[in-house]
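Pilot study result, target chain (290 residues):
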Amino acid sequence: MKDDEVSSTALTVLQGILYTGRKKEYAHLVSDEVKDACINILESSEAGKKRLKLLDSKLFTMSVPLIEKLMIPGLTLHYALRKKYIEEFVENAIERGFTQVVNLGAGFDTLAYRLSQKYANVNFIEIDHPATQRVKRESLMKIQIDNLHLLSVDFAKQNLKDSLSEFEAFDSKKDTIFISEGVLMYLSEKDVRDLFHSLKSLTSEQMEFIFTYLEPKSENEDSYGILLNLYLRFKNEHLSWDIKQNDLDNFLKSLNYETLKMANADDFKKTYLPKTSATLHRGENIAIAK
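Predicted structure:
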């Protein structure tokens, strides 16, 4: 991504959430509050406005299932499911006493913005690329929220551990939840290991980490369309790190982490869509570790 370029992937996620939330059978996954925040962000850039306009196009909405079949079947629904799961976990953690939430590579996620107004005693920090954060500041941060802080970091040039530890708003003595959604698959295994090590050293108190990860494509061939690789090459995005669900626990143990929970498409279906016959994306799972 160029220094002044808004993340196309971040825009796509918002568009997908709104597309899913407009469907009656999935309306319970996307609250009106989430929809309003997504719309505010999209309306703050020309690229975002184009995404909103497409959502009102019958031709576009009718073509989404075909596009997904060729790329990643069930992807827009998956966006809504994984965000619902992460939000419920974070709220539960706050109820258990955690007082700091740090979202790594937050993109246009609205979680910290919304929860910071609900939990005034919790410190929220978002870390992301400067260009993406600029749009977020202009759309959502028109009024100051004392417990919400945005830290701009270009990971191609800056170190996460140094940037966060030197950030005034970060408190190493608070029980902290770290979030990494849709990020780790773009890192090398070495960078993933370094990230886990860094998070452990950043806080002296309790820490839990909720993150998404990819399984190898060979584990879920039906979840990847024939045009996906071509699209990733066109966008200059490369999927680097993946791991089998059965191997994740040992991977975390090697980093001195304890696996608390894992969730995949079957868990999402059981929890949120027990009666659905919809195609669910398989391949990107959620894990929680400490």
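One observation from the pilot: The chain has a mean pLDDT of 90. A full batch analysis is planned for the follow-on phase.
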